[in-house]
Amino acid sequence: MSINATLFAQLVVFFILAWFTMSFVWPPITKALDERAKKIAEGLSAADKAKADQLAANKRVEEQLAAARTDATQRLADAERLAQSMIEEAKTRASEEGAKIVAAAKAEAEQESVKAREVLREQVAALAVKGAEQILKREVNAGVHAELLGRLKTEL
After folding, report:
1. Residue 36 sits in which domain range?
2. Which regions span the lipid bilayer (predicted)?
């Protein structure tokens, strides 16, 4: 065989192989590459969408946290105001109760003072009667001299 025939035969075999590859081998490979590229593009698109969703979710979470903090601060302030008003109310009630107790104690002390004066007057009247009895060396009738003893009590 000559070189030209061999070269020509190799050229024919090359073209048959190229045609066979282009017809039967190349389309499934390009189809697989296109599908892979499509899946990668979809994955990147889904990743971008997920990232945007995550940013939106983070923003919503931050807004909810801010609202919760504001609400908590407001509730604390309300609780402090309520506690302060309850303390003031308790102080006022305690002051009123203290004033009532002091007034009752003063009234009771006044009553005790009046009773003590009455007892003292009676004791002084009895002592005066005994003293007069001693002076007169005779018994004085308290029933007869009740009016005199009553005036003596009121003077004391």
Report:
1. 3-155
2. 6-29
